[in-house]
């Protein structure tokens, strides 16, 4: 079938619906991490301006996320040098989380849930959390993107992944699961109910594509942990989203080869930010073979955009085009955020390569 040229919006929507497209979609994961590095390249672009220059198809992430309202919780932030401490005061106790800045990165230096008492306080916070939609802001940002692509909205990640990444850290989460299994199960239940309130809030948005950011990887969780705690939550979220006739994509930017058969059991429509070595360990053609009709977004290892030469990157893209034989529902992207310092013209070169191939990019 011959297609007239699609707009970026038409192309991305068709790919996410696993329909035919005029050429391969190319939608690198662009956010402020990359945009903030552009002035050093003499490009003072915002997100829209950068994407217009690159000419990529657009999937804008984290658009107009609902405001979080913690009832009966007093929050305050104290800044000390490169350290920011956030305090949570509740009727059942207090928590704090410490974040430090190093270079262009901020990391958690002290997690908020480390003890049994902390579990109870955090559970109280979850039980008293509600969400306020920012629908007009979403509509405005989607209009700004226009024919270049789509705006997407975030769904909450699974409780286990939230503990691993943000609330307790890997080591503390493992110890808490072993030492206080009943209390953790109760906490997970409260978090899951809180997450349902968040999903019900984003269902009010005029958006057909919802991403949850699991960052799944065997570097932070075992197969048993994924199968027992993560997969059931993801499947619940999938069912909730599908009940609204929307498409659900799970962001999994880590090492996935050891979980690929379990991921195939997920009821989500696709996997985002599939990342090959060195950051990840799963090539996009292996993802297509492992997951059948699931949409696959990704393919390019992000650090390679800074560490490798332009000819090397063009060779990587050409290899992906050759090795991914079934491109229906495949969107070429980065396996997570485009790195700080990536040459903007390198991204433009990838656009030019794919546009030059046109329909041949699908062969």
What would you note in describing this structure?
Helices cover 42% and strands 20% of the residues. The protein has 14 helices and 14 strands. The strands form four sheets. It has a six-stranded parallel sheet with strand order 9-10-11-12-13-14, with helices on both faces. A four-stranded antiparallel sheet has the order 3-4-5-6. It has a two-stranded parallel sheet with strand order 1-8. The model has no long low-confidence stretch (mean pLDDT 97). Strand 4 and strand 5 form a beta hairpin. The protein has 363 residues and is of the alpha/beta class. It is globular and about 60 Å long. The two termini are 13 Å apart.
| Head-to-tail CA distance between termini | 13 Å
Count of runs of 4 or more consecutive helical residues: 14
Report the sheet-strand fraction: 15-25%
Helicity range:
40-55%
Low-confidence runs of at least 5 consecutive residues: none
Main structural class? alpha/beta
H/E series: HHHEEEEEEHEHEEHHHEHEHEHEHHEH
Shape: globular
For the largest beta-sheet, the strand count, sense and barrel status come to:
6 strands, parallel
- CA radius of gyration: 21 Å
Strand order of the largest sheet: 9-10-11-12-13-14
Mean pLDDT: 97
Q: How many β-strands, per DSSP?
A: 14
Notable features of this structure?
363 residues, four-stranded antiparallel β-sheet, 14 strands
